[in-house]
Design a protein that fits this description.
Aminopeptidase, alpha+beta, 9 strands, 7 helices, 238 residues
C-alpha cells in the first residue's frame, strides 16, 4: 500500500478566485511558494507594419471604436459620424494607416501586440494632420498662445486598448512608443489631451479613448494647460 503524502508536501487545492497568473512549481521535497508566470512583453509597431485585418480586430465591430474609426479629429468642418457613415470612416483609416505596406512613409498611428495578438491602437501624427484640432475650440487651445500650424508639434489623439485587454498596461506602452515614433520623425514636441480619471465618470465612452493623464505622466509628459475641468493638455519636449 502506498504511504500517504505528508500534509506539508501536498499540492494546495485551487481556491475560489485563484489568479491563473500564479502557478505552483515543485521543489525537490514538497512544493515551493507560488511564483508569477512570466508575461510576454507588449510590442508596438507602426501601423503600416500591421495588416488591416489586425487593426480591424482591435477596433472590433460594435460600439464607439467601430463607429468612429479614429476619425473624430480627422473629419472636416460640417462632417459628422452620421453624415459619413462607419464604412467611409473605416476606409479613411485604412488609407491613413497604409496597413500592410511595410516601409511606407506617412503612416498614421501605432498597433500594439501581446504574444502576437493585436491588442491596441494609438493615433499619433503632426498636430496639423488633425483638422478639428486647428479650430477655435477650448481643447487644446484655451489659455495657450500656440502656432496652430507648427507641424513640428505632434499629437496623440487616440489611445485604444482592445476589449479583453484593458488594464494590462496597453495605454502606457502605446504612449511611450508614440514618443519614440515622433522623435524618430524629427518632431520637436508631442502633445496629448487626456481625461482626468477622477472626472471621467459619466462622459461619453468615445471621449475616454483620448487616454488618461497617468499614462502620459508615466511617459514623461507634463501638464501645460487645463482647458476644461475634465481635460488637460500634456506635453513632452523632444
Amino acid at each position: 500500500m502506498t504511504p500517504p503524502v505528508p500534509r506539508a508536501n501536498r499540492m494546495p487545492r485551487p481556491r475560489a478566485g485563484h489568479d491563473p497568473k500564479w502557478v505552483i512549481r515543485g521543489a525537490v521535497e514538497g512544493y515551493g511558494p507560488a511564483v508569477p508566470r512570466p508575461t510576454p512583453p507588449i510590442t508596438v509597431v507602426a501601423a503600416n507594419e500591421a495588416s488591416w485585418e489586425e487593426l480591424q480586430a482591435v477596433f472590433g465591430s460594435a460600439r464607439d471604436p467601430a463607429q468612429c474609426w479614429c476619425q473624430r479629429y480627422k473629419m472636416q468642418p460640417g462632417e459628422s459620424w452620421r453624415s459619413c457613415g462607419p464604412a467611409e470612416l473605416a476606409s479613411r483609416l485604412q488609407a491613413q494607416t497604409r496597413c500592410g505596406e511595410p516601409g511606407a512613409d506617412g503612416t498614421s498611428g501605432l498597433v500594439a501586440y501581446l504574444d502576437g495578438e493585436p491588442i491596441g491602437w494609438c493615433a499619433v501624427e503632426p498636430r496639423t494632420a488633425y483638422p478639428r484640432l486647428l479650430l477655435k475650440t477650448r481643447v487644446p487651445w484655451d489659455g495657450r498662445d500656440e502656432d496652430r500650424r507648427d507641424d513640428g508639434v505632434w499629437a496623440v489623439t487616440c489611445v485604444l486598448a482592445r476589449k479583453g485587454f484593458r488594464r494590462h498596461g496597453v495605454s502606457r506602452a502605446l504612449v511611450r512608443a508614440a514618443v519614440d515614433h515622433a522623435r524618430d520623425r524629427r518632431a520637436r514636441a508631442v502633445e496629448g489631451y487626456p481625461m482626468l480619471a477622477e472626472a471621467a465618470k459619466g462622459v461619453l465612452p468615445v471621449e475616454l479613448h483620448v487616454g488618461h493623464r497617468s499614462a502620459f505622466a508615466d511617459a514623461g509628459f507634463r501638464e501645460v494647460a487645463r482647458p476644461t475641468i475634465r481635460r488637460c493638455v500634456m506635453r513632452i519636449e523632444l
